[in-house]
């Protein structure tokens, strides 16, 4: 899929419930400690207004972070390297296109609902992970999105990501 500059586009699939399915959870990871390697999981518990179990605390509007698998692949192609998706230090890898249009919407991921609040801007740590990574993550919301967890529950690999409001 070609991604144009300045575009944050989602290619939706309609479900029988007339809600928009964005994609599915390909992978889950948490940061157990500052600067520690990400730890991949098959499922994780989410806490309302807080974050994911085992993840470093963050501001509530960034209780969970999501990144697009398609955009991550584009970033790696541009850098001419293969990097693990969690190099970005996001929590959820979604089998989807750009996620920027989710900002301001409510989504369901497995058992939980999330109010997507913000674009997650890449920091200088990205260039420590791989030179040039930060610059490649800046356009088109490729650094991912973050949101406030609205309901307790569990996120599992394979769960659908659905726009609910």
Could you describe the 3D structure shown?
With 165 residues, the protein is mainly beta. The chain has a single domain, classed as PK beta-barrel domain-like (M1 Pyruvate Kinase, Domain 3, Beta Barrel), CATH 2.40.33.20. It is built from 3 helices and 11 strands. The strands form 2 sheets. It has a 7-stranded mixed β-barrel with strand order 2-6-5-9-8-7-11. It has a two-stranded antiparallel ribbon with strand order 4-10. Helix 1 links the parallel strand 5 (64-68) and strand 6 (92-94). It is globular, with a radius of gyration of 15 Å. It starts with 12 loop residues before the first strand and ends with a strand. Mean pLDDT is 89; it is low at 1-16.
Indicate the structural class: mainly beta
Please state the average pLDDT score: 89
Kindly estimate the percentage of residues that lie in beta strands according to DSSP.
25-35%
Strand arrangement in the largest pleated sheet? 2-6-5-9-8-7-11
- The CATH topology is given as M1 Pyruvate Kinase, Domain 3
Continuous helix count: 3
Radius of gyration: 15 Å
Q: Kindly report how far apart the N and C termini lie.
A: 26 Å
Largest sheet composition = 7 strands, mixed, barrel
> Helix coverage percent of residues?
10-25%
CATH C-level category:
Mainly Beta
User: What is the domain total for the residues?
Assistant: 1
Second CATH tier, the architecture = Beta Barrel
Q: Judging from the principal axes of the Cα atoms, what is the shape? A: globular
In total, the number of strands is 11
Low-confidence runs:
1-16
Q: For this structure, what is the CATH homologous superfamily?
A: PK beta-barrel domain-like
């Amino acid at each position: 899929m070609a991604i144009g500059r300045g575009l944050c586009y989602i290619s939706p699939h309609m479900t029988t419930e007339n809600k928009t399915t964005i994609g599915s959870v390909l992978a889950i990871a948490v940061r157990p400690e500052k600067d520690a390697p990400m730890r991949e999981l098959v499922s994780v518990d989410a806490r309302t207004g807080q974050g994911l179990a085992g993840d470093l605390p963050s501001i509530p509007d960034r209780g969970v972070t999501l990144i697009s698998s398609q955009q991550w692949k584009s970033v790696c192609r541009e850098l001419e390297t293969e990097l693990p998706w969690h190099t970005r230090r996001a929590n959820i890898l979604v089998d989807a296109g750009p996620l920027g249009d989710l900002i301001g919407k409510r989504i369901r991921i497995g058992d939980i609902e999330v109010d997507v609040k913000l674009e997650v801007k890449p920091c200088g740590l990205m260039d420590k992970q791989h030179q040039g990574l930060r610059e490649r993550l800046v356009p088109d919301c490729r650094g991912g999105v973050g949101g406030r967890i609205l309901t307790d529950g569990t996120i599992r690999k394979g769960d659908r990501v659905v726009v609910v409001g």
